[in-house]
Amino acid sequence: MNVRITTLAERPELADLVWDMPDSWPEFMDHDPISWSMFGLVTADPEYTVVATDESGTLVGHGHSVPFSRALPGRGGDLPDTGWDQVLMWANSDLRKKVAPDTISAVEISVHTGHQGKGLSGLLVTALRDNARAKGFGEMFAPVRPSAKHLEPRTPMSEYAYRTRKDGLPADPWLRVHVRAGGEIVKIAPASMVIPGSLAQWREWTGLPFDTDGPVELPFALSTVHCDTVQDSAVYVEPNVWVRHAL
After folding, report:
1. In 3-state terms, what secondary structure has residue 38?
2. Beta strands in 34-73 (DSSP E)
């Protein structure tokens, strides 16, 4: 499969198609309030988005990254335990206040549902790395969502993320793609994404009853959802894995 990957700035005609491309994200993932309110704002700069098209010119994948500052007072200079959500908040704040960035993070890579399993995700990781390097950054981070963790929602991420195969590469396929591209696992983000909702909302998003107190397992969730029937609410707290790419 021949693929052309550029920045969105080089292919502005694809801007509207990026948001309409079919992908495999589960419905409930679209209801993180931080992502809902900020993702489109902080990824609006086409210089930090990469797009992939096939021989016919069809959009088959895209990747987003955002610049921000870790050095500002109060941010501690470390990668946040609140991962994805925190990066979006910092990037949004820095964009509004015109703060000069010192860090860049990948925040999403999506592959068209009709073109998965063809190695496109690895090409997009490399494209984001190359683009970050071209922008003058010496490293790129990513709060990675391990692709097979949903099969073990009750396993601690601190255990799962560091499993390896006999060849020393991560057991998880998506973490393995990052490590093969030059990344290294540096820490866990235990509360990377938080999705609250009423029980009626969770029933709508998942088709599950949500009628019993306690942890609820659902398809494609990396951890369980805490259901509270007395308060008529449920909360999903997703752990991710911080990966560092030296450039």
Report:
1. helix
2. 49-53, 59-68
Tell me the pTM.
0.96
- What's the confidence (pLDDT) of residue 77? 87
* Tokens representing residue 134 in the block: 């071209």
What is d(CA 170, CA 174) in angstroms, rounded to the nearest whole number?
9
Predicted pLDDT at 146: 98
Residues 6+ apart with CB under 8 A from 186: 79, 242, 243, 244
Q: Longest C-alpha distance within the chain, in Å?
A: 55
pLDDT at 1: 74
Which residues neighbour 183 within 8 Å (Cβ) at sequence distance 6 or greater?
125, 142, 243, 244, 245
Query: What would the pLDDT profile of 94-108 be if each residue is shown by its tens digit?
Result: 999 999 999 999 999
Q: Identify the CA nearest to 188 among candidates 151, 148, 145.
A: 145
Domains, the chain, with CATH or none:
4-188+241-246 (3.40.630.30)
| Residues of the chain below pLDDT 50 | none
What are residue 110's DSSP bridge partners? 62
